[in-house]
Amino acid sequence: MTWLNPVVLVSAALVSIGLPAPVLAVTGPTMSANQFNQMLMVDTHLGYTDGTYGLIKDATGRYVRADAYVKAAADYVGIHIFRDGLTDGTAGSSPLSYYQTVAKSGISFVLVASGNTEAALSKSLSQIDTLNSTPGAVGSVLAIEGANEINNAPVCWGPPPCIGGLAGGVARQLTLQKLVRASTRTPKVPRVVYFTGWDAVPGSPGPDPASGYADYNNQHPYPNFGQPPYFWLSRDVALKNSTNKTARAMFTEVGYASGPLYGSKCNGGKGGVCWNNNGTWGTKPQVSEEVQAKFTLLIPFDAALLRVDRIAFYELLTGYKDKGVSDSGFGMFRYSANGTLLPKPVATALRNLTTVTADAGKVTTVTPLRYEVTGLPTHGYCPNVSVSKCTFNPTLAMQKSNGQYLIAVWAEQGIWNPDTHVATQGVTYAATVTLPQQYSKLEVIDPYVSATPIATYTYAASLKVSVVDRPILIRVTP
After folding, report:
1. Which residue has the higher pLDDT, 220 or 327?
2. I need a labelling partner for 119 at 20 to 30 A (CA). Which of 2, 83, 305, 381 fits?
C-alpha cells in the first residue's frame, strides 16, 4: 500500500487577492479510494455444507449457491475479497469446483493453507494453485495464510514425534514460506501471511515475520466487552511480535457479534457469546445490531491510520442460523423462514460506505489533500490504560480518479454497557473542516444512514459537521 504523508502548503489563490493564507495543520494521511477499497475483505465458510453456506444444485447438477446466495451477499455489501480455507469434498465438505465457481463470479481470495506435514501442506498448495489457475479466474488467490489460531486449534507439525505449541506453528510457517517461494506455479502467489494465535501461547509472542517467515504480519484483534476498535487494533496490542509500526500486516478476522446471549460465564459473568475450547471458556463481544454497524464502520478507518494493508470482517454469513455456536451473531445478514437474506444494519452500512468510496478508475499518483479538522478528540477509547496508548488523529483523506476527495472524520467512544447489554448515548462533537480554497461542492455523508448526502454546500471552503459514534464523510468536488 502506498502512503503519502500530508503536507502544509499555502494557497496561491488566496495570496493573489491579498488575503492571509491559512496554515492548515493537516494530520491525516491521504490514500487512493481504491487502496481503501482493497483493504476490505470478509470471512466466509464456503467449505460448510451443513449450514447457511450449504450447497444447492440446480436441475443440471451445477452448484448455484455461489451465484444465488453467497455472491449476492458479497455484492450487497460491496466487498469481493473472501478470506477462507479451501476444501476438496473430503468428509462432506464443499468440492474445489465450488470455489472455482465463486472465483469465476468475480471473487478473490486470501486462503489458509491446510496440513500438518510438508506433504499435506504441499497438497493444499497444489489445490490452491488449481484454483488460482482456473480459466476465467486466473490470479484470484491474493495470498496464502499460515495456521489459523494455534491457541484454539493446536498445531502438531511433522511426523511423530511432531512439534507442538508455538514452536510447531513457527516450523510450519517456515515450511509454508519455503514451499511458496520455491514454487514454479503460474501465476505464482506473490504473498504469504503469518499464522495467528501466537499471542495466546504462554511464554513468547513468537518471532517477527519479517525475519523470513511471511510477507504480512497477522492477527485476529477482536475488541473485548463491546468496546470501540482502535485500542484493540493498535499494533502495540494486536501485533506484539514486531516493533515496526509500518511493516506490512493484515487482520484476517475482526468484528463484533450481535447474537443472543449463549452463556452466563462469558465476559466475567456479564454474559455474551461463548463456546467451549478444550474445556475452557472463550469469549467474543456481544453488542446490539446498531452498535455492531457503527463500530464495524470504524474498523477500516482505524486500520488505515495504523497502516494495516487488509482487514477481514468476521463474517459475511453466520455459519449456522439455528445453532448457538461460536460464530452466532457475527454475520451481516438475518435469515427469513424461507432462507432469504435480510441485511442487518452492518450490511447496509458497509454497502453505503463502499458505494461512496467506489472508484471505477485508478489514481496512479496520490496528491495529498490540504485540509484541517478541529473540534475532534485526539484519542480513542482507552480501557484502563494511559491515553497515550490510544492517541491518534481521527481523519483520513481518499483521492478518487475523477478528481474528487473524500475526507473521513470520526470520534471513537464507548457506546455499549456490557453489564446491562444496552447502548448508551455518545458525546456529540462539533468538528470544523477547513480547506485552503473554495470548492464547487462539499457534501456530508453519514454511511450509517445512507450513501446519499445529508447536507450539501456549494462554493465553500469550510463546514461544520456533528460527529458522534461513527465515521462521517465529506465529499470534496473541485
Report:
1. 220
2. 83
